[in-house]
Amino acid sequence: MFILKRFSGFLMVVGICLPGIRATPVMAQQAILRGFVTNAETEQAMQGASVALLQDEELLYGVASDGDGFFQINRISAGSYLLRISFVGYGSYEEFFVVADGDIIERSVVLTESEAAIDELIVEADAVAGIAAVIAGLELVVPADIERVLIPGVSGDLASFLQTLPGVVVQGDRGGQYFVRGGAPDQNLALIDGLPVYMPFHILSFYSAFPEEIVDKAEFYTGGFGAQYGTRVSSVTDVHARNGNKQNYAGSLALAPFMSGVRVEGPIIRNRVSFLVNIRESLLETLSPNFFGQDLRYRLGDRFGKLHALIGNSHSISGMILDTDDRGDIAGTKKSFDGETIPKSVTDSAEVSWKNRVYGGTYNFRSNRLPVLFSLTVGQSEMTNEFGPANDPARESKIKSFDINTKLTWLLRTGSLNAGYSRRASDFEYRLDDNFQDLDADTLAMTETNVFLDANISLAGNRITLNPGLHYYHVSEGSRSTLDPRLRISVFPDGPLGRHQINLAFGIYHQATTGLSDERDLGNLFLAWIPTPADLPLQKSIHAILGYNLRMIKGLSMSVEGFYKDYSDLSVPVFSSFPSFTTSLQSADGRAFGVDFRLDVKSRPLSEDWSIDGYMSYGYSNVEYDTGTITYTPSHDRPHSFNMLAHIVQNELSFTVLTTIGTGLPFTSSGGFDKWILLTPGVDVASEPGQTRILYNEPFTERQPTYARTDVWLEKKVESGRQVTTLRAGIINVFNRKNLFYFDLFEFRRVDQLPITPSLGVKIEFR
């Protein structure tokens, strides 16, 4: 009854809003417009083209083409319209036509590059692009955003772009874990085509499972995500993978020591069925195992494949597989930068490895007559994590989950109603030696069920967009259930194309899984997933976000956003002063709050041949956990962070500078030493020397030095017909700052991040 009452309340809210929505009875059989947008020179599909229907220059319907260049506008009322399709740098396509009820209008449009300036018609999909266009915690990332952040190699990666956003914390150039606005790594949900990726970052943090070559778009929520998402309490990274080119064969070959790759894509049946294969591997272990004084014998890579088919005019199916692997010694400093060998030979056991495998498929249906969209996704995700030597790891962990997700959308004239169901059945395996005493099994299982209902509604002449929703979450173990309200609002005081935008988000979130990690393990990247014990409450968080965006002069925009997250019933290790690794778990509450500021500059001319673009961001945050006995700032608390990117372009030559500065992360210092003797029969304490051990001070009362790194890049592109060659040279940490990764208290040695490091690479693309 309680759940029914909550749903009734939600439906009442939607009912109040619906009178402002113009809807036409289904029996009227309104018209449909659909088609493809293609580049005339390359014959490639054009993603992100603006497709609009206008009457008397008033925008009535607007969408953006997808990764196939496909667009569809449903529920078009009878009448006369101007169809306008445009893309920046291309001549626009315009056509007048008359629509009758029941018409199905199809258009295949080819756009030609134009040197003349073209005024882009902005639709909602374009309005949220760019680092300063954050909408209540949502950053919509497109390939052009990823390309702005240059990294070792010759292609971009979603991981490096996310690290430039305020509120995102990583350990450094190595690590493989990321923290978002106070949340821990196990509280982040990463998805590719609707299926989870449990450890998406590579061991070198420049890279993730989401390279530029496979990303169609990504929705990154630092908080306040809507009712569609569940099972995590901190953040969501929802990546939509590209479909292969359905017009022509295309591909690329990239060679660089840090990361090399090959991509092949093309039609199996022209305009209907396509494939995409992308493979990346690092050559560091083979070419440069002792690179500039660093032991970089890291093995990392990923492999991705996707098939996509359009069946008739209403159906599409796709299948994909993603496989990643990482292994390396995170304590890789064996020499100083000038080649001087560290006197003491160290045998380090901090080797870590993990593998991801995700495979599944999606079916989509677009009704020709009803304003209905339906999708079904089914797949499996696996992740294994090991800590210690490859042939004899000290700890092992594995999670395997099977997902089934459905979503139904009813299109309205000024919005949509959405409902969905998902079920995830997970199996957990682990071997943790004596680290976690309170676990009494090494194999566990759990089933999570999610049901959501929400609405996307535009009111007051599109000056207000409203997204209320409810998320029902049920966990089979312990038969625990929650009903979480969600709400997102955007207000455009001077219209959706105006200069000002105010954003608000609120939501309650629950999570039934926990990632075990002994926080005293310096540099530890081991994470063991377990279900929250049935006799304990689910982890919970409450998010509140308020933001303001301002579009200033052309190409210049800014945003400011404040956030608050309240955490409760978190599972954290019990702190002990003794390094015996007999950690138990305890419940903790926490809170994180802060403010982000962003300034974005897009393609501002400096002279006739030179232009500049880039962005700057600053973030302040405060994170605190309370166990009831102690209050502390966790290891990922970074109060101040600053990022700046400047990109100067002259024709085909560009120069890029990326600077990152951040407060040092907290750590637990040593409080002294003692001698430990195992008291067994026959031990003579008078003669037994005992084992020297380090005692810990209070947790996380000290901070590492300030982190600062500047990278510079020079890039040259040479285009010749359908072939593009890119040459990239750069220097990582150009000022050779000694940034601390961690300090090993057991062996009393410093482990630094990368010193000044050159990078060279070449990439050849065939379009």
Note down, in words, how this protein is organized.
- The chain is mainly beta.
- The protein has 4 domains: 2-19 and 29-125, Immunoglobulin-like, CATH 2.60.40.10; 126-239, Ferric Hydroxamate Uptake Protein, Chain A, domain 1 (Beta Complex), CATH 2.170.130; 240-665 and 704-766, TonB-dependent receptor, beta-barrel domain (Maltoporin, Chain A), CATH 2.40.170.20; 666-703, no CATH class.
- The chain is 5% helix and 55% strand.
- The protein contains 5 helices and 47 strands.
- The strands form 10 sheets. It has a 22-stranded antiparallel barrel. A 5-stranded mixed beta sheet has the order 8-13-14-11-12. Strands 3-2-5-6 form a 4-stranded antiparallel beta sheet.
- Residues 1-28, 116-128 and 333-348 have low confidence and may be disordered.
